[in-house]
Structure formats: structure tokens, C-alpha cells
Specification:
single chain; alpha+beta; six-stranded mixed sheet; four-stranded antiparallel sheet; 10 strands; about 25% strand; disordered N terminus
Length: about 200
């Protein structure tokens, strides 16, 4: 499927269009494979609760849809926003007690499943929300027990190979420029893989 040229539009608008395109296409591919998604239709559900929809319209099965687009072709992981407005001189765990500092993904506590389109756009992974949160909490605990004593001053790699890094949002208009991102290997959290026959 051919993408339109949106390069003349503001960053926020391009991001919105891109997310909307991939969300609709991923839902179409899931339905072809017997997984019916009812998209979220109201602002509170989508923007506040971070829920993109529900499997079979079941409110006990909220989901998030993600697209992993990176330059490193062989990398196969989930990018997970842990913390925003991060300060490297303060323990990460303490900052996460402030709901305003909780990252978009970390805040989405009720997400049951994530559906992630891989970098080459050939597979959709169904990921378990509970497993993801457990691994993140385990990595934060290891950071607390490390010589850094809970402070993320540089790249941290957990025993499960979960990478946590302090990064800066490249968007000059971002209101949360300092972030902590975690990168979780897919094989730790994947419960189903859907191979795609049709290209995006």
C-alpha cells in the first residue's frame, strides 16, 4: 500500500496521521486472522486511559496497538515509555510515584494485550500486558539494587536483557523532552505471532 506525502504538515499532525493509518491497517489484518477489535471511540478512553480498543468489544480485554519502526533491521523488541520529565539525579522508582511523570505506556496499567507490528511489517505480535509490567517492575527493582541505587545515569541492562535508557525527545515542541524508555525482547512477552500475507 502506498503512503501519501505528509512531509509539509506539522510534526504533531504527521504523527497523528501515521498512527491512525497503522492502527486501522493492523485492525484489518487482525480481523482477517480471526481477532475482532472494536476501536475506542471517545477521547477519555484513548487519550487518558491509553486504550485503542477491545477484543470482541469485551471491556475486560483492552488493547494497545503499536508499530515498531526503527533503522536497525535485526532489532526485535517493544519500545515502552516508562517515565517522562525524568531527572537523572533522582531515583526512577520515586519519580514514577508521581502520575504526571509516568510514561504513556507505564500509565496504561489496564492494558491486557498489545498488538505490535514488527519493523519489516511482516508479523503482528500479540504481547501480554501483565508480563510486560512484571518485567518492567523487575528491571526497576534490579536498578534499585545496583550500584546506581535506583538512579538511571546511563544505559541499564537487566538480567532479562531489558534495556532502560535516559533519552531526549527529538521533537523541539515536546513538553516532556527527558524520558526513560525501556526496550523489552519480544520473546519474553509474546503469546501469539500472526504472519502477514498482505503487505501494508
Amino acid at each position: 500500500m502506498q503512503h501519501n506525502d505528509y512531509s509539509h504538515l506539522p510534526f504533531e499532525k504527521r504523527l497523528q496521521i501515521g498512527a491512525g493509518f497503522y492502527q486501522k491497517e493492523i485492525i484489518k489484518h487482525l480481523e482477517k486472522n480471526g481477532i475482532k477489535i472494536q476501536p475506542a471511540t471517545d477521547y477519555h478512553t484513548d487519550a487518558i486511559l491509553k486504550i485503542d480498543g477491545y477484543i470482541d468489544g469485551d471491556p475486560s480485554k483492552p488493547i494497545q496497538i503499536k508499530h515498531r519502526k526503527i533503522e536497525v533491521k535485526d532489532r526485535n523488541d517493544l519500545a515502552y515509555e516508562v517515565c517522562r520529565n525524568f531527572k537523572s539525579n533522582k531515583e526512577l522508582e520515586i519519580q514514577l510515584k508521581n502520575t504526571h511523570q509516568q510514561g504513556r505506556d507505564y500509565k496504561g496499567n489496564g492494558i491486557k494485550y498489545y498488538f505490535l507490528l514488527n519493523n519489516s511489517e511482516t508479523i503482528i505480535y500479540q504481547l501480554c500486558g501483565d508480563l510486560i509490567k512484571n518485567y518492567i517492575q523487575k528491571a526497576i527493582h534490579e536498578l534499585n539494587e545496583s550500584r546506581n541505587q535506583g538512579k538511571l545515569n546511563k544505559r541499564f541492562l537487566s538480567l532479562d536483557k531489558i534495556e532502560m535508557i535516559h533519552t531526549r525527545d527529538r521533537d523541539p515542541k515536546s513538553f516532556t523532552p527527558q524520558k526513560v524508555m525501556a526496550f523489552i525482547p519480544i520473546d519474553l512477552i509474546c503469546i501469539n505471532s500472526i504472519k502477514l500475507n498482505d503487505a501494508f
